[in-house]
Write a structure and sequence with these properties.
Chain B: It holds the Pfam family BPD_transp_2. Chain B: Its main location: membrane. Chain B: GO terms for molecular function: branched-chain amino acid transmembrane transporter activity. Chain B: One of its GO terms (cellular component) is plasma membrane. The complex is a heterodimer. Chain A is of the alpha/beta class. Chain A folds into two domains: about 200 residues, Rossmann fold (3-Layer(aba) Sandwich); about 55 residues, no CATH class. Chain A has a six-stranded mixed β-sheet with strand order 6-7-8-3-9-10, with helices on both faces. A four-stranded antiparallel β-sheet of chain A has the order 2-1-4-5, with helices on one face. In chain A, helix 3 runs parallel beside helix 5. By secondary structure, chain B is mainly α. Chain B has two domains: about 220 residues, no CATH class; about 230 residues, no CATH class. Chain B is built from 27 helices and two strands. Chain B has a two-stranded antiparallel ribbon. In chain B, a hairpin with a 2-residue loop joins strand 1 and strand 2. The longest helix of chain B is centred in the N-terminal third of the chain and has 31 residues. Chain B is globular. The chains are: A alpha/beta, B mainly alpha. Chains A and B meet through helix 2 and helix 3 of A and helix 20, helix 21 and helix 22 of B.
């Protein structure tokens, strides 16, 4: 297997604070990798650097061996990286399906086209994508009236429209009900398995992480303190220390998995 | 050296009034997010009220007392305006309130005319300060020195109020996060009213304090408005030291401009502003303005759909009816309809950029007047035939929009609006002061259509075809991938950028496109009138278009031309009366309060309530 994403010595400081401190890791093709850590560990800073929203103070990010640090978000997207946001960002004046169509229009590089009707372009494909995330029945609803969990699913469809090689999801299940969380992550896991996409996600819900991630990295105070399989992370004393009291949570999750 | 110093002192003295008005505007914007177009009117009121008081109150105490009283009275008038006009519309869509303040301008203009008459009033000189002092052999009025001394005190008092008192803490907190302040139990409406009082009182004070230098006249409101906008933008919205520094810079610059470069005084001010904003997009002391992105106020816009068959038939019938005007109507109706059509295209072009793109331009007249002048200049100097001139007009306006858009789009929100205003004023001052080429105030005349189109009827049909075509083209563009991308950039720039859309470039293209379409309207305008004057580039013309778009309904597809047609028709009717501004102003305020979603938006709501129209959203 080849590494889709390689991160080498990535760092970012804000004044004297090292939000992300010399983080290195790689992501294989078809891998579902979770990045966890307590609040303020540097997860979102890390994500924003991967997506080009934030310039690193040091280090390199490579996509399939090609350096992407310093590129703008839209340039990174063009290279085949899709993302979903921690706080959803959708086009509130459009319908659900039009949000996906917009992504398809950009994917096919037709955003400057003035001749066709946009709402007729790639509609079939957009409906397929909505079907994948279970939103087909809401395709023609106004995006502004959607429930939060549905917005999250819509964002996933929007990201998938670009046929990404790499999917970055910043807290994909935040703000969702427990059952919805499991369903969304199951969906993501299926997509990763079926389409050979690689996925990096951050998450606070340990049930979700332990149930679906292939590999887990733990970030604390800007530093990677652990990187390994679900089993390794669960039994890592350092990780348990970071999540003071969180150890119970791990075992609870384990029992649930066993049950 | 002596002259230099004297001029510097004059500039500093002039900065006083400017600073007071600008800091008032800045305060009001900071807390209420209202761009108060009527701020110049409060300044004018201050001058008139102060003048009257000075006639009554005697002596030195009377003079200064009159100035203070004028400030307080104008502040109270501001409170009345805030309570009656603005309170009902705080919840209306973003920036809609500025339409209301424009209505206030018109009302105040006519009321002032009614009360004080049309003649300019000469300000009385300050008792005890009537003489001059010789500084290095140059005469400097004593009153100037007094002003130079007073202004820092006002600035300091204001600074103290804002930074050291409890009221100031509330005001600053509200500037940063209104909702949070409300959630902490502060009565927001009274805070807003209080700030409005303070802002208007400052404007009134500024108007009264400059009486001995400038007197009072009916043009003061618009005359100061541009300088005030420039000062606030250069200094940075909401920054008092910034406002003071910028007021000094602009005033001194003006004084020196008058003596050394009399032909470019007006241009100079805007050049400085553009240069400052190129390097500091949020002014000298300003922070990044997030008002525009601070969550949309009001309902999000509905999804759009191309018109179905019934609507298309309706449009066809409407166009046929318009085509019948020359047969059924009089010569006068023809000319009026031509005017309205041209204005509708102008408004629709702004609506495309403002409604679809969320780009609020205060200077769209630059492209209307720009197109008009391009056509007129080519006809005058190159004897270009009408057909070619009508093509060159949009090209010229489009080119101007490409350049202006490139600079303006570096900023966002209210700074973007101010920059567009500055560029429009820049073009206006170029045309106005470069009389050798452009005819200056006398305009360019004798620009008539080609022989075949010289009859009113033929020209009407030409206008109908071009304007209806242009409006339909703009409408189609809204439904095209380009229009969708433009809306995407407006709805969520973050998501759009993360989806490969270069939002700035999309907006730039839209800006140029809208500019070119306004240029088409401008070209037609020249040939319909046979002449063009600098007032086609004026700030008032830009505001006309802006108001029309808001009145028609920003968040609707047809808002632009519907608003344009209604406004132009009503205006044509009202201007026959003596106090038409009063009537128009009250009408605008009325529409703003009763129909905060604009004419089209409110009609749609009404239709939905009556069950005639589908709401577009199933009731789950």
């Amino acid at each position: 297997m080849s590494a889709v994403l390689t991160v080498e010595h990535l760092s970012r400081s804000f004044g004297a604070i090292k939000a992300v401190d010399d983080v290195s890791f790689s992501l294989e093709q078809g891998e579902l990798l979770a990045l966890i850590g307590p609040n303020g560990a540097g997860k979102s800073t890390c994500f924003n650097m991967l997506m080009g929203q934030l310039k690193p103070t040091g280090g390199v990010v490579k996509l399939n061996g090609e350096k992407i640090t310093g590129l703008l978000p839209r340039q990174i997207w063009r290279k085949g990286v899709g993302r979903t946001f921690q706080i959803t960002a959708t086009y509130s004046s459009m319908t659900v399906v039009e949000n996906v169509q917009m992504s398809l229009i950009s994917h096919h590089r037709r955003i400057y086209s003035m001749l066709p009707y946009a709402h007729k372009l790639y509609r079939t494909r957009a409906l397929e994508l909505l079907d994948t995330v279970g939103m087909a029945d809401q395709a023609d609803r106004h995006c502004a009236v959607l429930a939060y969990g549905d917005l999250k699913r819509l964002e996933l469809a929007v990201a998938l429209a670009h046929e990404p090689k790499l999917l970055l999801m910043d807290e994909p299940t935040a703000g969702m009900a427990p059952r919805e969380r499991i369903a969304l992550m199951q969906l993501t896991a299926d997509i990763v398995r079926d389409q050979g996409v690689s996925c990096l996600f951050t998450e606070h819900d340990m049930d979700v992480v332990f149930a679906h991630a292939h590999r887990i990295m733990v970030l604390n105070r800007g530093q990677l303190i652990a990187d390994g399989s679900v089993e390794e992370i669960r039994n890592n004393p350092q990780v348990q220390e970071v999540y003071l009291g969180g150890g119970m949570l791990f075992h609870a999750a384990e029992e649930k998995a066993d049950a | 050296m002596g002259l230099f110093l004297a001029q510097l002192l004059t500039g500093l003295a002039n900065a006083g009034a400017l600073f007071m008005v600008a800091s008032g505007l800045s305060l009001i914007f900071g807390v209420t997010r209202i761009v108060n177009f009527a701020h110049g009117s409060f300044y004018m009121l201050g001058a008139y009220v102060g003048w009257t008081l000075m006639q009554v109150l005697p002596g030195m105490v009377g003079f200064w007392g009159a100035i203070l009283l004028a400030g307080i009275i104008v502040g109270l008038i501001g409170v009345i305006v805030e309570i009656c006009v603005l309170r009902p519309v705080y919840s209306a869509p973003e920036l809609f309130q500025l339409v209301a303040t424009f209505g206030v301008i018109l009302v105040i203009q006519d009321l002032t005319l009614m009360i004080w008459g049309a003649e300019d009033l000469l300000g009385p000189r300050a008792p005890g300060l009537k003489g001059i002092v010789r500084i290095m052999d140059e005469p400097v009025p004593q009153y100037d020195l007094a002003l130079i001394a007073i202004t820092p005190f006002v600035a300091f008092a204001l600074w103290y109020l804002i930074t050291k008192t409890r009221v100031g803490i509330l005001v600053r907190a509200a500037t940063q996060d209104r909702e949070m302040v409300g959630a902490l139990g502060v009565n927001q409406s009274w805070l807003f009213t209080g700030v409005f009082f303070l802002g208007c009182a400052l404007a009134g004070l500024g108007g009264a304090v400059q009486l001995p230098k400038g007197g009072a006249d009916l043009l003061m409101d618009f005359n100061i408005l541009t300088s005030v906008f420039v000062v606030v933008v250069i200094g940075g919205m909401g920054s008092l030291p910034g406002a003071y520094l910028a007021a000094v810079i602009i005033s001194v610059l003006n004084v020196f401009g008058v003596s050394y470069m009399p032909k470019s005084t007006l241009v100079l001010m805007f050049l400085v502003m553009v240069v400052v904003l190129m390097f500091r997009p949020f002014g000298l002391f300003g922070k990044e303005e997030v008002a525009g992105e601070h969550g949309q106020v009001g309902e999000p816009e509905r999804p759009i759909k191309p018109a179905g068959l019934p609507v298309r038939l309706l449009v066809a019938v409407g166009l046929v009816l318009l085509g019948l005007i020359p047969i059924l109507g009089s010569n006068f109706t023809e000319v009026l309809a031509t005017d309205i059509l041209i204005f509708c295209l102008f408004a629709a072009s702004l609506h495309f950029m403002l409604g679809m793109g969320g780009l609020v331009s205060f200077g769209h007249a630059a492209f209307f007047g720009g197109g008009a002048y391009v056509a007129a200049l080519f006809v005058t100097y190159a004897h270009t035939p009408m057909e070619l001139a009508l093509i060159l007009a949009p090209l010229g306006a489009g080119l101007a929009a490409v350049i202006i858009g490139w600079v303006c789009l570096r900023s966002t929100g209210v700074y973007f609006a101010m920059l567009t205003l500055a560029f429009a004023q820049l073009l206006w001052s170029l045309v106005f002061q470069w009389g050798d080429i452009t005819g200056g105030d006398d305009g360019l005349v004798n620009i008539w259509p080609s022989a075949w189109a010289s009859s009113n009827t033929v020209f009407f049909y030409l206008t109908l075809v071009i304007c209806a075509g242009g409006i339909l083209l703009l409408r189609h563009a809204a439904h095209s991938p380009f229009g969708y991308a433009l809306r995407a950039a407006r709805d969520s720039a973050r998501q759009a950028e993360a989806m490969g859309i270069n939002t700035k470039r999309i907006q730039w293209v839209a800006f140029a496109f809208a500019g070119a379409m306004a240029g088409v309207a401008g070209g037609l305008f020249v040939f319909s009138k046979g002449s063009v004057f600098p007032n086609e580039l004026e700030i008032a013309r830009s505001f006309d278009a802006l108001i029309v778009v808001f009145l028609g309904g920003v968040k609707t597809l047809s808002g632009g031309w519907v608003g344009g047609a209604s406004f132009e028709a009503v205006k044509d009717y009202l201007t026959r009366f003596e106090y038409w501004r009063l009537a128009l102003g009250l009408l605008i305020i009325g529409v703003v309060i009763l129909a905060p979603e604009g004419i089209v938006g409110s009609l749609r709501k009404l239709g939905e309530r009556l069950g005639v129209l589908n709401t577009g959203e199933d009731k789950r």
